[in-house]
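Lab notebook page, bench 4
Experiment: in silico fold of construct C2
Operator: M.H.
Input chain length: 118 residues
Purpose: comparison with the prior construct
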Amino acid sequence: MVWALVWSVAMGCAVLVMPCTGTVRPERPAWTRDTATSAPSPYRGGYYTGTARLRRGCIGDAVREVQALLLQCGYPVMCVDGVFAPPLETLVKAFQTDQRLRADGAVGPATWERLRHC
């Protein structure tokens, strides 16, 4: 088993995490499915419902939510591990460019909104 040492700039501490070994595709939780005849509710990964600003170095459930939402939108996230590493920053920039947002690689309110309604 291989462990990776990740330095979290946002938290200011070193954290040991076990890297993913394959692609994780989250299933859409039952509570996010709209059974009414109205427009379907936006997909949520089920990890986080806020709109905190995230950037490279962040870790946790909010990052897992970004990863799950990018997967739902068709972007090739390698795993949902909760670590905002350089590959995730690249995918966020690609998403922002595709959505005609400012491509800074950080996830703010506008990016959250587009991710949840992709």
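Observations: The first strand starts at residue 4 and ends at 8. The helical segments are 61-72, 86-98, 109-116.
Next step: discuss at group meeting.
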